[in-house]
Amino acid sequence: GEAATKLKGVVKVAKMEAGGKLSLLEGYDFKGYPILVFIPAGKKMKRFYYTYDGSRTVSDMSSWVMEKMQ
Question: 47 - beta bridge partners?
Answer without folding.
Answer: none
